Amino acid sequence: MYRDIFQNVYRVIEQDGTFTPTRFTNRQLAALGALHPNYERFGRCAAGVSLAFYTSSPEVSFDLTTDGFYTRFTGVDFYENGVLMHNLTLPEEPAVTRVSYEKRTAGETLLEIYLPSNARVTLTNLSLGDFRPVDRTRLPLILYYGDSLTQSAYTPTPSLAFPSILARETDTRFVNRGIGSLYFDASTLDPDDGLQPKVVFAEFGGNDLVRRVNHQVVYRDGVAEYYTPAEVPALIDRAEAYLTKLRKIYSGAVIIPITLVWCYTTSPRADIETVRAEYYTQQTALCRRMGFDFIDGSTVIPHLPQFRVEDGTHFNALGAYAVAASLLPRLLKAIR
Fold first, then answer.
1. I need a labelling partner for 193 at 20 to 30 A (CA). Which of 24, 129, 206, 243 fits?
2. Residues 6 or more apart whose Cβ sits within 8 Å of residue 221
3. Among candidates 237, 231, 213, which has minimal Cα distance to 271?
């Protein structure tokens, strides 16, 4: 019955009283690992995963093991009857933490506990009182494929990632399949994925521009190299292969690509800006040619630094709300 409280997962692995949520199929994890071991590690992070249940117990607790970190931002969010009440900051290195939460609401309460987006987690020794799971299986399922912007592991409040915000705003369920630093690669899609989503978002582009040889980033003098504008057509071919396979696997879903997302930088490089502009133009043309009702990534967030964390690329909580607001009309249209 504990397995039933896990939300926004592909499946939950239960063994000897230990529960490990997963977002990807085994085939996908193997494909991610074939690209680079880090991608499999990031794929095992619990982005978007939550526990949702009703309980009248005044306090709930469980042991939470965190490891396989992607970023140093880690925490747990606690909601009571849909309201964020508390955030618990976790250690920034592998640890076992006894997570305890004392309710602020008397009587039976709907609790939703969001697990860290940036780490693999396992749960043991759950003490939830007279709990009963929340059944969301009949709600529309949304898949979010993408890179670190989708995984949203750069804020210690995991519930304030844009996929999680959108789920609460639209009464949908979802699986966050964002992977930090990932790019368009069709091998990471599983033709036998058993999920049947209503809508699939695909947000890639930023990492596609980084030069790789045999899947390894090429560095010169310690700085990552980028492709040139002349090489963009080959990158677009890779995006087309991915989107073609995505459309075939999820033939009953509305597929919504998100083109290259605008990012902020205090020290722009002319070569990077030039190839970004060319990629954005050709990616947009690809989406039109394939007939997608896509989202223009340059419009999803204000072009202001205060919507990003310090690196200028990743969304903070304010940025996540802005992105969710931008995507909300399109998602509502798709699920009606």
1. 206
2. none
3. 231
Percent helix, strand and coil across the chain, each to the nearest 5: 30, 30, 40
Kindly give the residue spans of alpha helices, DSSP state H, lying in 94-161: 148-151
Burial 179-218 (b: 16+ CB within 10 A, else e): bbbbbbbeebbbeebebebbbbbbbbbbbbbbebeeeeee
Torsion of CA 302, 306, 312, 318, to 10 degrees: -70
Using CA atoms, how far residue 178 sits from 201, 227, 270, 302, in Å, is: 10, 23, 28, 22
Say how far apart CA 110 and CA 128 lie, in whole Å: 12
Spatial distance between the Cα atoms of 35 and 121, rounded to a whole number of angstroms:
23
Query: Please, are residues 95 and 116 in contact by the beta-carbon 8 Å criterion?
Result: no
Q: What is the end-to-end Cα distance of the chain in Å, rounded?
A: 32
The number of residues making up the chain comes to: 336
Helix (H) or strand (E) holding 37: helix 37-43
Q: pLDDT for 261-290, tens place per residue?
A: 999 887 888 999 999 999 999 999 999 999
How far is CA 250 from each of CA 137, 203, 256, rounded to the nearest angstrom? 18, 16, 12
Q: What is the pLDDT of residues 283-331, one digit of tens each?
A: 999 999 999 999 999 999 999 999 999 999 999 999 999 999 999 999 9
SS3 call for 143: strand
